[in-house]
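Reproducibility note. Readers wishing to regenerate the assembly model reported in the main text can use the exact inputs given here. Chain order matters: entities are listed in the order in which they were concatenated for prediction.
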Amino acid sequence: MRLSTAGMHRSSIDAILEQQVRLSKTQNQITTGKKFQTASEDPIGATRVAGLESKRADNAQYGRNSNIIKSRLSYEEQTLADITSVLQSARDSALAGANATLGQAERRMIANQVRQNLAALMDMANRQDGNGEYLFAGTSTATRPFAQGAAGVNYQGDQTVRQVRITGTQSLADVHTGVDTFMGIAERNGVFRTTVAAANTGNATIDLGTVTDGTAWIPANYTLQFTSATDWQVVDDGTPTPAIIASGSGFTSGQSIGFLGVNVTITGAPAANDSFGITPAQDTDVFAMLDELARTLEGDSAIAGSQAAFQAQIGASIANMDAALERVVGVRAEVGTRLQAIDIAADFRESEEVDLKALISEIRDVDYASAISQLNQQYTSLQAAQAAYSKFAQLSLFDYL
Amino acid sequence: MADVLSTGMSSLRALQRALDTTSHNIANVSTEGYTRQRVEFHSRRPELSGGGWIGTGVEVSTVRRVYDQFLSQQTRSSGTNLARLDAYASQAARIDNLLSDTDNGLSASLQSFTDAINEVSTTPASIPARQVLIAEGRALAERLKSYDTRLRNMSTELNGRLGAEAQEITTLAQGIAKLNDEISVAYRQSSQPPNDLLDQRDALINELSAKVGISVVAEGEALNVFIGNGQPLVLGTQASEITTTVDPLDSERTLFALRTPSGTVDLSRVISGGTLGGLLDWRSQMLEPARNELGRIGVAITTQVNAQHREGMDLTGTLGGNFFNIGPATATAAAANTGTAAVTVTRTGLGALTANDYVLARTATGYTLNRKDTGAPVAFTGTGTAADPILADGLSIVVGAGIATGDRHSIQPTRDALAGISVAITDASRVAAAAPIRASAASSNTGTGSISSGEVLDPTNAALLGTVDIEFTSATTYSVNGAGSFTYTPGASIDVNGWRVQVNGAPAVGDRFTVRSNAGATGDNRNAFALADALRTNVLDGGTKSAYAAIERLTADVGLSTRTAQVNRDAEAAIHESDLAARDSVQGVNLDEEAANMLRYQQAYAAAAQIISAAQEMFDSLMNAVRR
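Running the prediction on these inputs yields the following structure tokens for the assembly.
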């Protein structure tokens, strides 16, 4: 085997160049901290890192989403807490007003408080968040959701609740709509309402009534009539001749009268031809409930013209306040659940972030200890190759001629 | 005694040649393609004298190239391979670098766009969030377009380079033909080999073989060079001209061709090896697929976003339009077509859409559709009329009037898509973040029925935004806008006017649900929410791949091909290196060897000179003896 001079030089130089490339690659790894700079250096690793990075970016976005929805939900919770205390105060007013020893002037004062409660409630229901968006308007966030109309308070928002994504697989409802929070609450006992006829001459009053057998109840308008002080009958609103549903005699004060699975209690002394209405309960709203309470306390002749009517009506209002409170507390509990879900999601994202970072680091990041030792090794071998070449290149037989 | 003188003279002459050759070798130690030469001596014819046959000295029989045909050929063939792989790998690395940018790359742009959608989804009433979305949309479009432009530029650049390479190949071929001529002249002058001309010719052939794969066949003293699958490049003293032509089916594509008296013959498909082979392989295996795939990704993103955006409602209460503009699928008539028909192509679905180009050809009885790159036939239905378009691979192809048998049209479903990408809306309020309809239950309802928020099935329905009342005429039936009587099934879909809602629970008689235009719902995010999901939806390749996955796949594919090319290149470089070493170990000059030879020849020369001087002395001695 013989070697050509040009060939010897070429292969020595090639070896040095190759060493240099390797050295520069290792040096690049150390300066950037990454094992690979382009996909070709580790196609599978690069693709995996791209996927994992994309997941991390998504998580960061979900984190921002969560922060925004969290501040809105917290604000809603705060508002609901305010509303609860307003309703609680109205309920206290109703209890105070129910005291039979109070005169009309004192009740009016209490009614004024209720009116103030109602105004405060309107303000709260029309609250705007930090971005000037109405909290309870559904998605019509630029529309003032509640406005006083001729026949009560109107809801002008919509019934859409927006969803916000808080993890890759979980989305969460934003704040409640006005309908969810304030509207469509079944009044009184939830099934029927009892009223004292304005024309009654006796002092008997009627309680809220209870349902003993929900399946027997047929929603319709019924009238409990006293044909004498002790004889009564329940008729429906059939025309032209109302049908008698139930009847009895020997009435005494505090007696419970039952028909079609419901019970009502009449207290006091009814006069002949006194009557009491028993009609299906209506869905109403919190504002109407407060208004009704105020009107009751003000002695509105349409609903509380007599002491008997007032008593029946104030009892109903207390029940209404309870129903309203129950609704608001229920909504608030839901908000609490959502806030909790946000925290759980945040924990989940955080732990996922740690996993993702570790995975990415494992795939992409340089192990400095091994990279530096590799660098040293390559440095040494390049040095050796250079030294060997410079020695070898000096050798020539011509030097000895 | 004259014999001693003549023998000495012959020795001086021969050694003079040997030293000439040694110095020639030393002089050419660094000459590329130089083959070391050696002087072959033989002893001269002896003369018969009384004592027998007496030698008469030495003479040079020839100066020989120390040439190994087999090793030379092997080196050339590994050189061709290396040049191909090197060209491929270095071009591939450019695309790899382009796509590997993790901080500003395509995935990052798409991610920013998705984030911006999410931001709008969380704060739909915020004008700044909407402006950011439009800006990010533009950034994404620009990014896609700039990638496309870079790839297009690479293609244009390659076209230019092919022209230059064709010229160089022609020049090399002419050089080889000329040397063939000079060599045959030299052989005719004497039967001795013109070593340096042979070396020059070999060097040219090596240079040529690094550019393009060739086969070399000796014919007498001449070497014939063939290219492709047997097209003659050099025949004896005649060289053909290599030129470039434009692809008849694609005006942006330059082909590599052999000029013959009857026209040009396309060599692009048959060329293999060499830089040119590498470049052509790279173009058809990597550049064009990558560009088409990038276009396909752009089509997937824009189609998904547009479809969802059209199902939404903007802040002005109008239905959303297209969010992005995108270039159409294109069809080009072949230059040689005799018919005048224009072909219209539209993309109909993402699932079947491919990154391939196609060729539609008219036969006597109908059409054939083939992939442009492999020529594989593609199944299709339809006859190509507007009423019955040709449907294949997510495309609808309509052929206009005036098609002639033999006409060909090339079809590019996605190649030019990104040239036309842009954001179609400029006004932040026109971002359709809201759903166009809202559903509500009447406050007077007494039943427990609830209505879903509704989804849009057909945003083009003219009555979509009209107000519709769903009223329950009994617990089990309902009417729509007071008409009809439909059976109520809880949870079943109710489809009216291009939307769908579900009613659940137990509605009472007289309960009413209303679906109406959602104008004014500035805080509605339902469509933005769906938009964010749309980008993650698997739509490509039969619903198995999202745009994100397609980008990752493209990056991985390009990375993998680049890596493969680089690994092959490195392996071939090692093979070529060892071939070179083997060849040089036979053919190359070794200075030490030459030094030894020089020493040897110098000493012999000095000795021969002594012979001359001895002859002189012998002659003098004789003369002195005679004089006495």
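We highlight two features of this model. Residues 123 and 135 of chain A are 11 Å apart (CA to CA). Chain A has a mean pLDDT of 89.
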